[in-house]
Specification:
Blueprint: E1 8-12, E2 17-22, H1 33-48, E3 54-59, H2 73-77, H3 81-91, H4 93-100, E4 105-109, E5 113-114, H5 116-123, E6 126-130, E7 134-136, H6 150-158, H7 160-169, E8 173-174, H8 175-180, E9 186-188, H9 193-205, H10 209-222, H11 227-242, H12 245-256
Parallel strand pairs: 2-3, 3-4, 4-6, 5-7, 6-9
Antiparallel strand pairs: 1-2, 7-8
Length: 265
């Protein structure tokens, strides 16, 4: 199989925000196998970069991601079941990375998020959408079913009944409809989107890194553990944070009625 070069840009701002941009606008940012691997590599790089406090995932142009590149899908469908399974198991690691990195991942949904592109958006911790954004999961239209975690994220965010409706009817949700259903956190006007995302990401980045990491860890565990298990994890996380310089600075700043200066220690 002939593969194109990966098309994922990685940039880090002075404010500590790493931006991963799906960068194939002429193909509506359709994903090829190298792109999934590059996305995983970008998440890994941001996870270990001490300068990075927040990760933003977005698309170039006016589309977030149109999913897998269907024009090359025939080559992948021609693979043997063993080859196809091995490739998919390798590529879906990118989705797992969204959850495994303890840094906040913000989906900046600048336009339509379709199929696997919608799943990429769902894998983010929070989603900010431009007014022109839309969300659809038309897997059944091509005789397929959700992958890359779609069947995990959709029912947890929307419930099973709404998930089945979207899958079976193949409808598209506008940004406003997605916000009403809880799939999107906030919707911004198209001409204000980039600046609004920047402000949101930088505001999150001002939090102490340790507390950001522990809050992500405990919230996700809390969604799937018993109360007893979560209480134990919360106690452990709180104990660790209590010994950090950032926690001491946060308490002192509160007492002195000033803005805290967190250093990530």
């Amino acid at each position: 199989m002939t593969e194109s070069p990966a098309a994922v840009r990685y940039e880090v701002s002075e404010a500590g925000v790493a931006t991963l941009t799906l960068d194939r606008p002429d193909k509506r940012n359709a994903m090829m196998p190298p792109d999934w691997r590059a996305l995983e590599d970008g998440l890994d790089a941001a996870a270990v970069d001490a300068k990075v406090r927040v990760i933003v995932v977005t698309g170039a142009g006016e589309t977030f991601c149109s999913g897998g590149d269907l024009k090359t899908m025939g080559e992948r469908l021609a693979q043997s079941p063993v080859q196809r399974s091995a490739e998919l198991h390798r590529l879906v690691r990118s989705t797992q990375r969204f959850r495994e990195t303890l840094k906040p991942v913000i989906g900046a949904i600048n336009g339509p998020a379709i199929g696997a592109g919608c799943v990429v958006a769902l894998a983010c911790d929070v989603r900010l959408a431009a007014a022109r954004a839309a969300f659809s999961v038309p897997f059944l239209r091509i005789g397929m079913q959700p992958d890359f975690g779609g069947a995990y994220f959709l029912p947890r965010i929307l419930g099973t009944a709404k998930t089945f409706e979207l899958l079976w009817m193949q409808d598209s949700l506008s940004a406003t409809e997605a916000a009403e259903l809880g799939l999107v956190n906030r919707v911004f006007p198209d001409d204000e989107f980039d600046e609004s995302v920047r402000e949101f990401a930088e505001r999150v980045a001002r939090n102490p890194p340790g507390a950001l990491a522990m809050s992500k860890l405990t919230v996700y565990h809390g969604a799937e553990q018993t109360l007893r298990e979560l209480l134990d994890l919360e106690a452990l996380a709180q104990t660790v944070l209590s010994k950090s310089e950032d926690a001491q600075e946060g308490v002192q700043a509160f007492v002195e009625k000033r803005r805290p200066r967190f250093r990530g220690q």
